[in-house]
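Final paragraph of the annual report: two paired records, presented back to back.
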Amino acid sequence: MKNTTQGTSPAPLLLERSGAIATLRFNRPDTLNAIDAPMARAFLAAVQAVVADPGVRAVVLCGNGRGFMAGGDLATLRAQPVQGAIDILTPLNQALLLLAQTNAPVIAQVHGVAAGAGLSLLLMADHVLMAEGTRLNLAYIHLGTSGDAGATWALPRLVGLRKALEIALLGDAFTADEALRLGLVNRVVPAAELQAATDALAQRIANGPTLAYGAMKRLMRESMDRTLAAQLEAEKDAFVACAATADFQAGVEAFHARQPPVFRGC
């Protein structure tokens, strides 16, 4: 991993590539990766590079140091409450929309702390692996503000409106095990096994039918905003588009040959 620098300071975000897997690593460990405007801009630039690269078939979000992300940078928001929030959220929102729309599934690898925007980011991921002992808190209410980074969109879809309001309005901290019980994460593993578990999952996804993954992501994410008739039509259109891909042909041929399919993401 190269520690790219900006001037004399470490880059606030590191973009790493291993084969078809791209890792976006938040890199402000002294602040528990609290997101400020430079990090938000670096995140957007990295996401733009990733989604423009058809060779990327899985994306991992993670954080350096003791935690995934402790939320927004309060020093920035204390100095410039309004403009600071705009400068962080504008590029952050653009990045999240791109990740939601890209074919490559997004995996959040979470450890230590995920609060505020850190919790929002993992809620927006397609798959979440979390280390035992991680502490979570939506936290916004303690600062006298509402949610951001997709929290108010994703949370009620994951846990239902009543539970989402409880988590948001009370702002109580909760554990990785509670997050698993609520369906906010897919798997909780010992901290020492988190990296290996993430690597294995990312490689499995990178070997899959990337275009079909993208179609499935969009169908799932947009389903609650459609009628049944509209969703059925969207499913038909997506299936027909997938049927025209080389991966679909490979999957069908492998099924008839009773062999594992080899997908190439096209």
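The closing record of the year follows.
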Amino acid sequence: MPELSRRRRMLVLAICCMSLLIVSLDNTVLNVALPSMQKELHASVSGLQWTIDAYTLVLASLLMLSGSTADRIGRRRVFKTGLVIFTLGSALCSVAPNLETLVIFRMMQAIGGSMLNPVAMSIITNTFTDPRERARAIGVWGGVVGLSMAAGPLVGGLLVDSVGWRSIFWVNLPIGVAALILTWKFVPESRAAKARRPDPVGQLLVIGVLAGVTSTIIEEPSAGWTSPLIIGLICLAVLSLAGLLAYEPRRSEPLIDLRFFRSPPFSGATMIAVCAFAALGGFLFVNTLYLQEARNLSALHAGLYLLPMAAVTGVCAPLSGRLVGSRGPRPSLVVAGVGMTLSGLLFALFDAEAHTPLLFLGYVLFGFGFGWVNAPITNTAVSGMPRSQAGVAAAVASTSRQIGSTLGVAVLGAVLAGGVGASSGPGRAAASYVHDFTDAARPGWWILTACGLAVLVLGIATSGDWARRGAQRAAALFEREQEAPPASASAGTGSSRAL
């Protein structure tokens, strides 16, 4: 792809950020609308979990396929297709007659969404070739996440209170159409120098792992560990994972290239993404239900309560991008881990939900910590890899985020359903329900505290000199493969791919 002028690069960044905005805004807006959806559609807690996790599950399953497909047939082409599918899926969600069709249309949204964020990140990586400029661009990208978190609860609350929960999907329509037109006019086409072939077996195995794990966590509280459904789902997850680990290293062009994980920074970024976004997904799910169900706040007032967290995230995200560009990922990851850990401890030890000043302090601390984590994840995932692998590397990082979000909603939703469901009832006093909710959520807060500690420890452990040397050795594997003649590369496939 030819070098673009600075003005054109900024325009491409803005267009890519529009896709991130609608995908991120969709999730934050939806969280505020959950109680209204629950009443109108007569949904259980597990039903609400599926409205979120059906989206993130499909998204996580298809991100790597979309990334490799975009590298092969053209990033702009796949990006435009994703915008069309996502926008159409949003329109259908707004007219869903029941919970089952809403979940199906959310899955359609996810198919389109899988073609947006990782492909947009690949476009950014190939547009901004200077490492410092790329880090700043990724900081802006992370700032859009903060913007969506800040705007989502307010926009969602206003729409739900004034028009109804269905209107939350209308927000995506004008942004999606505008992004499609601008992409067609201004984003140049690009492809990887060495295209990767499809891997349908690997794709099915990935879906089996994620679907088995997520469904087990969500359905276990109602079905029980000994039910045939749960046993079957566990077998599906285990057998799919075993098949994935056995099959993928034997392919010359796998869906998941396990050599990526020889890079300590890349492996660390993947695990950090899972932990950080599990904390975010669970945090938003529990708190939006708490504010509206236990405190009886309206959707708009619940959005205003969450605003401090979102605003702090929006301020910190671009600062993190600049810090990563000048000082590397470690300082941002340390700050992120400390902030998220302190927030979790505040809820776990001091019942911050029951005390408004502590509640807001917990929100601010979590937003502060999460605001610093996104830029180092993305930068670390793509900066140590050759540009020809940017799409797949970015897709793995994005997949890790969605897996984390899926697990966070599934795990904390299951914890909450098991604790609150048995003790709540129609005639239960509000003060008693608040107490029950606080007790039920406490194990979840300890889980979020553990996620924050994991971000801190992994951030320190995978950002030192030895980790950078490991990243250089991993990148050299791909560079030698790309430079080698086709015949010799083919002949050496078996030994070079061994783990």
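Residues 200-250 form one domain. This concludes the annual technical report; the extension proposal builds directly on these records.
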